[in-house]
Amino acid sequence: MFWLPSMMLDAGVVISKRLRILSKGGKRAARESGRMVTEKMIAAAEAGLILGTGGSTTKVMKNCRKRVRANARRLK
């Protein structure tokens, strides 16, 4: 789990950028808040699917890390 610290840093960056967007309000904030809810629902479903088909928690975390990195890149 050597990747956990980098995921934590990326998550902090994503949270910071999203808070900045949300604090400004407007259409972009509305889109981002909707996207956040949708992403959480998809992530929960994927985690359930991975675990339900015999996958490990490590595989779930790798999937989450991939999404966090994608958000960090998108929000630059």
Walk me through this protein's architecture.
- With 76 residues, the protein is an all-alpha fold.
- The protein has three helices and no strands.
- Helix 1 runs antiparallel to helix 2 (26-52), helix 1 (4-24) crosses helix 3 (57-74) and helix 2 runs antiparallel to helix 3.
- The protein is flat, with a radius of gyration of 14 Å.
- The model has no long low-confidence stretch (mean pLDDT 93).
Pick out its properties:
single chain, 76 residues, mainly alpha, 3 helices, flat
Summarize the structure.
The protein contains 3 helices and no strands.
Outline type = flat
Q: Largest beta sheet, briefly?
A: none
Number of helices: 3
How many angstroms does the end-to-end distance come to? 26 Å
Low-confidence runs:
none
The percent range for helix content is over 70%
Provide mean pLDDT, rounded. 93
Helices and strands, in order, run as HHH
Which percent range describes the beta-strand content?
under 5%
Please report the total strand number as a whole number. 0
Mind telling me the C-alpha Rg? 14 Å
Structural class: mainly alpha
